[in-house]
TrEMBL record:
Gene3D superfamilies: 3.10.450.50. The lineage of its organism: Bacteria, Bacillati, Bacillota, Bacilli, Bacillales. This is DUF4440 domain-containing protein. It comes from the Bacteria. Transmembrane segments: none annotated. InterPro entries: NTF2-like_dom_sf, SnoaL-like. Residues 8-133 form the SnoaL-like domain.
């Protein structure tokens, strides 16, 4: 599905802009067809581009129904790469804004991405999101 990402940073920028624009095809454009995702929400695991697409459609439709724009920021970003494989870990902040730009809420998450370079383009082959758990309550810490 990749459209041609010359470096890992381009993949991350595409992720951010696709989420903000709620553009499913653009979101999928940096994913390998056999992507494997471990998620913190609902099904916890998505295997292959068709399951990833279903998840993205549901997520973006929910944002549209709610009338929010979601800004994504990566911080504490670490990228390790060689010629054909890359490993990324970071904190991710999702901030929901209304149409006038007012921040409504935000949450933080931890992400790990595995990327592979094929045909001179970087694609996500694995994504893992996680939350630390409060041991007293058993709830995720956002």
């Amino acid at each position: 599905m990749g459209i041609g990402f010359n470096n890992v940073q381009e993949v991350l920028e595409n992720y951010k802009s696709a989420v903000y624009e709620k553009d499913v095809e653009r979101f999928l454009s940096s994913c390998a067809s056999d992507i494997h995702v471990y998620d913190c929400w609902q099904d916890w695991e998505y295997i292959g581009i068709s399951q990833r697409k279903e998840m993205a459609e549901e997520w973006f439709n929910g944002l549209n129904e709610e009338g929010v724009l979601l800004k994504t920021d990566f911080d504490n970003l670490v990228i390790e790469e060689n010629a054909n494989l890359a490993f990324v870990h970071c904190n991710v902040t999702y901030a929901a804004h209304n149409e006038s730009g007012e921040k409504l809420r935000q949450m933080r998450n931890r992400f790990t991405f595995g990327l592979k370079k094929e045909n001179d383009s970087w694609n996500i082959i694995h994504e893992h999101s996680s939350l630390p758990i409060n041991m007293e309550t058993g709830k995720g810490i956002f």
